[in-house]
Amino acid sequence: MTLPNAVRIVEVGPRDGLQNEKQLVSADTKVELIRRLEAAGLKAIETTSFVSPKWVPQMGDNTEVLTRVLAAAKRGVAYPVLTPNLKGFEAALAAGATEVAVFGAASESFSQKNINCSIAESLERFRPVTEAARAAGVKVRGYVSCVAGCPYEGLIAPQAVADVAATLLEMGCYEISLGDTIGGGNPASIARMLEAVMKQVPVAQLAGHYHDTYGMAIANIHASLQMGVAVFDASVGGLGGCPYAAGASGNVATEDVVWLLDGLGVQTGVGLGALVDTAAWISAQLGREPASRVARAVLAKRGAVS
Amino acid sequence: MTLPNAVRIVEVGPRDGLQNEKQLVSADTKVELIRRLEAAGLKAIETTSFVSPKWVPQMGDNTEVLTRVLAAAKRGVAYPVLTPNLKGFEAALAAGATEVAVFGAASESFSQKNINCSIAESLERFRPVTEAARAAGVKVRGYVSCVAGCPYEGLIAPQAVADVAATLLEMGCYEISLGDTIGGGNPASIARMLEAVMKQVPVAQLAGHYHDTYGMAIANIHASLQMGVAVFDASVGGLGGCPYAAGASGNVATEDVVWLLDGLGVQTGVGLGALVDTAAWISAQLGREPASRVARAVLAKRGAVS
């Protein structure tokens, strides 16, 4: 039950968060968001996605955003980008990417409905990307989705998650991020899933990517910490919401994660005040209040004091 | 790490929740809320508070509400009421109460600022209430507030909590509810607090009463379950908000707790669907959306399906 001394937070707001926002966000705002996240102390910021703008118009400015961000890259900060295929990888490489991410679902139905092929086929499609990345000296991170449930199948067997995670590892991913895409996990089911995955992938190469749709993400992170997981994905201000249920929560908010880790005495290197400021700022840009409990409480307390 | 097989949920929405609502709620609505909570399967529902209506106008209808609720009491359901002094206790008894609750703070500053006396003095003031209750065959539940922090003092020593809990036990309380009044606790600090308290009060007589102000309540409940705590207070729809920071969350939502326990395979006897319906209904009465993640997600999913 000893917790890790330090945790690495991978901020996914600018990509995974904004990609689910209906209103188009300008490249200026995206770059400014990333600059503020860097200033708050985040050391890994998923910057954009090299997908077709026909599929994801929000990421149509990917080359501009990545180029501008990298032109003033902060020392020691990683700026991974999502690259669903070789064409996307080549565009990312041309824009200067030094880290990319690929993904696979742990659910056959989800894979079929989302990318119209089986899990095995989808992973094979990524092989050229991981090979090209290795040749170019680019790091590759792997995402597994639906690790604790699927919107079409319901429960997902822990072994199915372990199989996809092991394949991504074998393909050369340096880290596997385990995504509870629908937020259906709880501390018990997440622990069972991790137990199966840890038999095939060293825990030092695992990350938790938990959605807070049913308010379980913080408890799931705590359960994962107890099992040795020391990397977590999060989205500032809870950006993005839930693509499967409008009005519900999606990615766990980065400030909620930092609050938990601060309380547990686990180092993150992230400053909570600056992070809450950033959550308030990007939420204002989107015309709303921050969705996270911590941002709301900290801002309410500041208001009460002033 | 074995969890309890079953958990008793004490629903505090009609009292602790509504008491913090600015708009006056009618006795009809309060009684209807309690009927719906019974129908959802809750077996303990804090019904009202016998305080002076000058202090808490929202509870000015205490006799009417309790009388009406008890007139059609459901078998096996407890309807505790808060009684801060002997006058309140006598009024509660006259209205038919068979269970009352008293309270003490674990923070000297909080006690002084809220009820203008020391912790020790406040507990002595309750002694006539517990003695009268014993004489009348009325059960007494004890609340300790500020168990994981105080709005004035910051951190609170676990031993201070244990001392108040032990005194309430010695005065005849059958159960001690440990309140994280400002939601400042996390799984580590809650565990340290429980460890100290459990040296003086058997865990079977403890309840967790955690606020979700910083989104930690579900993780704190999970940590408490791991230590054997099997009673938790919660408020349907997260009713009540946070009296120390307008706009922030207060009591953990009952539906979030039930969702967690359902996922962990721990029995509650509460039906999630009926509970979410109740959260939606009372929130509509108050002119807003339910505050809880689970209610929002379940309602959004129903909307998406229909």
Structural notes for this entry:
The structure is a homodimer of 306-residue chains. Chain A is built from 12 helices and 9 strands. The first copy, chain A, is of the alpha/beta class and 306 residues long. Chain A has a single domain, classed as Aldolase class I (TIM Barrel, Alpha-Beta Barrel). A 6-stranded parallel β-sheet of chain A has the order 3-4-5-6-7-8. Chain A has a 3-stranded parallel β-sheet with strand order 2-1-9, with helices on one face. In chain A, helix 7 crosses helix 8 (187-198) and helix 10 (254-264) runs antiparallel to helix 11 (272-285). The mean pLDDT of chain A is 94. Chain A binds chain B through residues 183, 185-189, 212-216, 218-219, 221-223, 242, 244-249, 253, 256, 259-260, 263-265, 292-294, 296-297, 299-301, 303-304, and chain B through 183, 185-189, 212-216, 218-219, 221-223, 242, 244-249, 253, 256, 259-260, 263-265, 292-294, 296-297, 299-301, 303-304. Chains A, B: Keywords: Lyase, Metal-binding. Chains A, B: InterPro entries: Aldolase_TIM, HMGL, PYR_CT. Chains A, B: It is an enzyme of class 4 (lyase). Chains A, B: Residues 7-276 form the Pyruvate carboxyltransferase domain. Chains A, B: Pathway: Metabolic intermediate metabolism; (S)-3-hydroxy-3-methylglutaryl-CoA degradation; acetoacetate from (S)-3-hydroxy-3-methylglutaryl-CoA: step 1/1.
Domain unit count of chain A: 1
Q: How far is the first residue's CA from the last residue's CA of chain A?
A: 41 Å
The CATH topology of chain A, please? Answer: TIM Barrel
The total strand number of chain A stands at: 9
CATH architecture of chain A: Alpha-Beta Barrel
Oligomer: homodimer
Count of DSSP H/I helices of chain A: 12
Rg of Cα set of chain A: 18 Å
User: Beta-sheet strand percentage of chain A?
Assistant: 5-15%
Q: CATH class of chain A, anyone?
A: Alpha Beta
Could you tell me the mean pLDDT of chain A?
Answer: 94
**Biggest interface found:** A-B, 40 and 40 residues
What characteristic shape of chain A results from the CA principal axes? globular
| Percent of residues in helices of chain A | 40-55%
Strand order across the biggest sheet of chain A? Answer: 3-4-5-6-7-8
- Look at the helices and sheets of chain A and give the structural class: alpha/beta
